[in-house]
Write a structure and sequence with these properties.
The chain has 523 residues and is α/β, with parallel strands linked by helices. Helix content is 47%, strand content 15%. The protein has 18 helices and 18 strands. The strands form five sheets. Strands 1, 2, 3, 4, 8, 13 and 14 form a seven-stranded parallel sheet that branches. It has a four-stranded antiparallel sheet with strand order 6-5-7-9. Strands 10-12-11 form a three-stranded antiparallel sheet. The two termini are 54 Å apart. It binds one RNA strand of 72 nucleotides through helix 6, helix 13, helix 15 and helix 16.
RNA sequence: GGCAGGGUAGCUCAGUGGUAGAGCAAGGGACUCAUAAGCCCUGGGUCGGGAGUUCAAUUCUCCCCCCUGCCA
């Protein structure tokens, strides 16, 4: 089976990352880790989009060269991914010379087969903002506002891509491939957009005198490529597309990886960028229906009901949250409090509460009390024994059921349901302690066999948790396994997980709180 | 105006053609191994409004209202 190729949107390097960036990358990382846990080989690509006008202007304003400017912002992204344990295999930076070569080769290819043409366009141009204005930018009085400064009418030549040639194919492709977009309801937006503006070709250039920070068109050096053929191309250029003819090295073999099993994007860049521009670009390059990527479209984190925006001043900084909650605490919240594909409400009181209640009080405390009792009553020595009863059997059954629900949910991108499935074990095991009362059994020598079985069941339930939750909170689960004295054998896959991972006579380690409880401001 | 999503317990949200569920929050109780954690019990919703299909609708159909987003 081919490797699971998973990508994310590449982030624009004109401002540091916010919680939405973090969510998308953690989602990709969780899925990558889950696929590996299923025994699948994985290639995880993420990166940054570094070209364009905004970067050029921000760099000018900061008195830096564009490259120095984007290097600085890029460092914010890479250090955040390190901190959050987002473990990617490939890094797509659009200023990478290998990427530029592929973009140019692609453009040349399309030019050769007549898919690109030059056309002049005249319109209103804001000198101050260095951009063309459309009717959208007009104020209520029909004029362009003060913020645009001097507005002049100019005529400009540019290169266009014959997107319209591929619209009919795309409509058919979408109708016949219901798996193309997850969640499926987003498909309607795409078809709708195609119906209303399907005849429009795509402008792919800017005159070099206006935009210098970009990739020159190989067949017309007076122009620089504008956005789409640069940014979207990363998904194939860094997967080794045209590597041989471009002399690119150190990249995967394209034939092995492509098509992408999951291109994770936000709902804002589905239409038109990914579902229309990207798909028609691929089609124009000769990619077949079988070589099209699958899109996974996620929703947004709103902040207490409002959209997150710099002007509202409610941008949530993932760095400080990771410091406060630990990286795993943040990863957990980002995965459990949103249904993949939908929006969710980010609430700083709720995130603390869920950390304390679920991670500290539920999951962490279960590990702590289980290990602590094993140490206290048996010096950490677990005995499997022959004793059994319905309560033990019920816990084992919960573990088994949870495993299958987890697996099904995760494969369907319902991470929150996967977590909920694992949490069935947490809840049951905590109740199991209260109903079996190992602390009472310990006082009665005639109950020794039962006590052993209870302690063993708790440890074994936790071994299962440490595997199921590993993709989501990998650091904490590695710590937990160390406390349990159990390591996942190398090459261990989900289907290897069965009751009885711990041998009789297993020695357990010392308990240390996994997620120390955090004080809240309210107290 | 068109399209999409949503309108279910105080809050955040699941869910299903057969007299509604979870987590959190609130109230009460028993316990003590544990991170004052965990466990048990309780309260409370005419599932946005109306009509239709059906033996039966929160779940299907139609109309309307409200919120959000995209497009025009």
């Amino acid at each position: 089976m081919k490797p699971f190729y998973i990508t994310t949107a590449i982030d624009y390097t004109n401002a540091p990352p916010h919680i939405g960036h973090a969510y998308e990358k953690v989602l990709a990382d969780v899925m990558a880790r889950f696929q590996r846990l299923q025994g699948r080989q994985v290639y995880f690509l993420t990166g940054v989009d570094q070209h364009g006008q905004k970067v050029q202007k921000s760099a000018d304003a900061a008195g830096l060269s564009p490259q120095a400017f984007v290097d600085g912002i890029t460092a914010h992204f890479t250090s955040l991914w390190d901190k959050l344990n987002v473990r990617y295999d490939g890094w797509a930076a659009t200023t990478d010379p290998r990427h530029k070569r592929v973009v140019q080769a692609m453009l040349q290819k399309l030019h050769n087969c007549g898919q690109l043409y030059k056309k002049s366009y005249s319109g209103h141009y804001s000198v101050r903002q260095e951009q063309f204005l459309t009717d959208k930018e007009r104020g209520p009085d029909g004029n362009f506002g003060e913020e645009w400064g001097e507005v002049v009418e100019i005529e400009e030549e540019n290169w266009y891509f014959k997107l319209s040639d591929h619209v009919e194919w795309l409509q058919n492709y979408i109708r016949s491939h219901p798996d193309f977009i997850t969640p499926a309801f987003r498909t309607a937006d795409v078809l709708n957009a195609l119906d209303s503006s399907g005849g429009q070709d795509l402008c792919i250039s800017r005159p070099a005198e206006r935009l210098s920070w970009g990739i020159p068109l190989p067949f017309d050096e007076r122009f620089v490529n504008y956005v789409w053929f640069d940014a979207l191309t990363n998904y194939i250029s860094f997967a080794g597309y045209l590597a041989d003819e471009c002399g690119n090295e150190g990249l995967p073999r394209f034939a092995d990886l492509w098509p992408a099993d999951a291109e994770i994007i936000g709902k804002d860049i589905l239409v038109p960028a990914h579902a229309i521009y990207w798909m028609t670009m691929l089609h124009a390059l000769g990619f077949t229906d079988e070589q099209m990527p699958r899109l996974i479209v996620h929703g947004w984190w709103n902040i207490k009901g409002a959209k997150m925006s710099k002007s509202l001043g409610n941008v949530v900084d993932p760095n400080s949250l990771a410091d406060q909650l630990t990286p795993d605490g943040l990863r957990y919240y980002l995965m459990r409090d949103i249904a993949t594909g939908y929006d969710s409400d980010f609430n700083d009181e709720r995130i603390l509460m869920s950390y304390n209640k679920e991670l500290a009080g539920g999951l962490g405390n279960l590990l702590n009390r289980s290990i602590n009792m094993a140490q206290k009553y048996r010096n950490g020595l677990l005995v499997a024994g022959d004793y059994d009863d319905p309560e033990n059997a019920a816990l084992r059954q919960t573990v088994t059921e949870s495993l299958s629900v987890y697996s099904e949910s995760m494969n369907a991108w319902a991470i929150h349901d996967g977590i909920a499935a694992a949490w069935k074990i947490v809840t049951h095991a905590n109740a199991f302690v209260d109903s079996t009362k190992p602390f009472s059994l310990a006082k009665d020598p005639s109950q020794a066999a039962r006590l052993d079985s209870v302690l063993y069941h708790l440890a074994e339930a936790w071994v299962h948790l440490s595997v199921l939750l590993d993709p989501i909170i990998p650091t904490a689960m590695a710590t937990a396994r160390a406390q349990l004295g159990w390591e996942m054998p190398s090459g261990f896959v989900l289907t290897d997980l069965k009751w009885g991972m711990l041998q009789s006579g297993h020695q357990i380690n010392t308990p240390i709180p996994l997620f120390p409880r955090l004080e809240t401001n309210a107290e």
